[in-house]
What we know:
By secondary structure, the protein is an alpha+beta fold. The chain has one domain. The protein is 41% helix and 26% strand. It is built from three helices and seven strands. The protein has helices spanning 3-70, 91-101, 192-195, and strands at 104-114, 117-129, 142-153, 155-156, 167-171, 176-179, 196-200. The strands form two sheets. A four-stranded antiparallel sheet has the order 1-2-3-7. α1 (3-70) runs antiparallel to α2. It starts with a helix and ends with a strand. The model has no long low-confidence stretch (mean pLDDT 83).
Amino acid sequence: xxxxxxxxxxxxxxxxxxxxxxxxxxxxxxxxxxxxxxxxxxxxxxxxxxxxxxxxxxxxxxxxxxxxxxxxxxxxxxxxxxxxxxxxxxxxxxxxxxxxxxxxxxxxxxxxxxxxxxxxxxxxxxxxxxxxxxxxxxxxxxxxxxxxxxxxxxxxxxxxxxxxxxxxxxxxxxxxxxxxxxxxxxxxxxxxxxxxxxxxxx
Length: 202
């Protein structure tokens, strides 16, 4: 093979090499852009989940306060254990605070119900953007996500229970406790998590 042939082969191979290198770089940047978008979506979903749970937990705290205040003073105190007597007055503020902690803003909020259990629906938008990438517009694109959290009572009592007398409660996991409205003091109730579970809706 002559020197002229070798030079000719090298001359033909170089453009192909440059072309393949360009394709590989483009694919690498595209994967990076998709990874950026996925990361932003994951961050947004985590923020939405946290905000919804915060709203539901605030409502659970309201239920606990209302229950403690009503035992021995209100004949309908057992109604608080159904899990739906809260007003949700502080729920939005709790959602806003948790969203802000996760670099997001609440852009949609409201009461919700899933399988008969009350809760809150939250939609958020991240304060940060997806970031610069080869895909136009991502530098100004904010991720959005939504979530719903519900409050579910964990304890049952007999339908014939007399609210003026001691009431026996059976809770998830086989635990039980008794409340005597004539001998009740602040702090006698079990932990809030024993009476009501707060979790994201499926």
